[in-house]
From TrEMBL:
PROSITE patterns: VOC. It comes from the Bacteria. Residues 1-20 are annotated as: Disordered. This is VOC family protein. Residues 23-137, 151-266 form the VOC domain. CDD domains: SgaA_N_like. It comes from Streptomyces alboniger.
């Protein structure tokens, strides 16, 4: 999020209407230990939890001051998938968007399936293997609050080089993009209707070999150092120590099962 505003991830009146197609509208985590994972994030972000929808198996929705902000599900014991936060990108037609993903060289791993009265969803990956979700809202519109402490603030694709994958996202979601003009910095903001909603960061050989291309979710916090200390107290790890970016202070951490995310105190909240 070095050149992207943390606040750009906010929607005025978040949760009061459908998100425009292509906008990250929800984040979800599939973990092995659902109870322990709830305890970790409840202690870190002050989340409470509500079960459902039941069509997703063991699954809970995280609440911040009574408002839904994220989801956590339980992986079947025989599924050995990477534990990772996954952003869901809004669509008006999950089936049509899933077909566009396939047509443009991506893969659909799950769905599309109907999640009760909440909406319709799919899990996809782009041609480089980065995983993301599709969400066609019905009753569940997505995160009801964005950019406040304990809530999602931003989503960013970390990949080898943006030029190789931006055509896929442009074709599937209709993004326009704005590049950071720099000879040694490969960074694009993805825009919907002229508004930045997410970003891509090409990191070249610095791409973690054990993860490959991936989407990174940022959560707003009141104090980055306190959040990092709390992560370690709760059994998580520090992946990258706190640093100062153009629009905020941030640190990358992992929960006890290894799900990586970034905490940020955006300058807009200073």
């Amino acid at each position: 999020m070095t050149e992207a505003q943390a606040s750009a991830g906010r929607r005025d009146g978040a949760g009061t209407g459908r998100s425009a197609p292509g906008t990250p509208c929800w984040v979800s985590l599939m973990a092995h230990g659902l109870t322990a994972t709830q305890e970790f994030y409840g202690a870190l972000f002050g989340w409470e939890f509500r079960p459902g929808p039941e069509q997703l198996g063991p699954y809970v929705r995280a609440l911040l001051d009574g408002r839904e902000v994220a989801g956590i599900g339980q992986l079947p014991s025989d599924r050995h998938l990477p534990i990772a936060w996954t952003p869901y990108l809004a669509t008006d037609d999950a089936d049509a968007t899933a077909e566009a993903v396939r047509h443009c060289g991506g893969t659909i791993g799950v769905g599309p399936i109907t999640a009760g009265k909440a909406g319709r969803m799919a899990i996809a990956s782009d041609p480089t293997g980065a995983v993301f979700g599709l969400w066609q809202a019905a009753r569940h519109l997505g995160s009801a609050v964005v950019g406040e402490p304990g809530a999602p603030a931003w989503n960013e694709l970390v990949t080898r080089e943006t030029a190789s994958v931006v055509p896929f996202y442009r074709a599937v979601f209709g993004y326009t993009e704005e590049a950071v003009v720099s000879a040694d910095f490969d960074y694009l903001t993805l825009q919907v209707d002229g508004r930045p909603v997410a970003a891509m960061h090409g990191v070249g050989e610095a791409l973690p070999r054990d993860r490959g291309p991936h989407w990174m979710t940022y959560f707003e916090v009141a104090d980055v150092k306190e959040a990092v200390d709390r992560v370690t107290e709760l059994g998580g790890q520090v992946v990258r120590a706190p640093w100062e970016g153009s629009h905020g202070r941030m640190a990358t951490v992992a929960d006890p099962e290894g799900a990586v995310f970034t905490v940020v105190r955006s300058h807009a909240r200073a």
